[in-house]
Amino acid sequence: MKVEAGKVTALIGPNGAGKTTLLNVVSGILRPVRGQVRFRGRDITGWPQHKVASLGIARTFQDLQLFGNMTVREHLLVGRYRLTHTSLVEALLRLPRHFREERESRKAVDALLARLGLSDVADWPVNALPYGKQRLVGVARALALEPALLLLDEPTAGLSGTEAEEVGQLLGLLAREGLGVLLVEHHVGLVMSYCDWVVVLDHGLVIAQGVPEKVQSDPHVIEAYLGEEAA
């Protein structure tokens, strides 16, 4: 399977199909037993997480992995760490490059906060936010990396219908700006409305892929995952 720049690709399938495992392989958390992971024509199979991130691949997690006492702004500044070049010595000595990069990072973070509607809570600790906002902070932190490929693991889990729609609209907008998105999602309505391409996994195997309308009517997909409701 492949994920194209400028498109939202959904990865769906029943529980245990291997969706999160695939994201873990791509992002460097797990090393595959066989097969390859290629990014922009480069074999990155088995690369460690920090090296994968350095290429511009960012991801979110099902369990959020936020730091409760840190503010929203601080989370995004941490997310931009890969983009800074200041050494520890430069930071400790408070040399000019340290201050220049700090200003640039804060400016970029403030712009991202405004875009995602998080400016009003920028200085709140994330544990003071409602769950839907915490989910959005997780996405924002990944976007702070300025990635070329964004991996999202069930970003709408626990969200209301309205909140899930807002996430779908955001992903569509990001894709139109050239970002590649690989989305693990159980919200079938969101997948069918906002995704350009759908890949279906079952027991670690791709059993179908195509545009949403085609996949939705595939009998193998209906049997394995979507159920009679989708038919």
What can you see in these coordinates?
This protein has a domain at 1-56 and 147-231: Rossmann fold, CATH 3.40.50. Strand 2 and strand 3 (42-43) form a beta hairpin. It is an alpha/beta fold. It is built from ten helices and eight strands.
What is the CATH domain class of one domain? Alpha Beta
DSSP strand tally: 8
Question: What is the percent of helical residues?
Answer: 40-55%
Write the CATH homologous superfamily of one domain.
P-loop containing nucleotide triphosphate hydrolases
Low-pLDDT stretches: none
What is the average of the pLDDT values?
Answer: 89
Order of strands across the main sheet: 4-5-6-1-7-8
**Computed Rg:** 19 Å
Which structural class fits the helix and strand makeup? alpha/beta
Biggest sheet overview: 6 strands, mixed
Q: What is the N-to-C order of secondary-structure elements (H for helix, E for strand)?
A: EHEEHEHHHHEHEHEEHH
Query: End-to-end span in angstroms?
Result: 25 Å
Strand content: 5-15%
CATH architecture of one domain: 3-Layer(aba) Sandwich
3D shape: globular
CATH level 3 topology of one domain: Rossmann fold
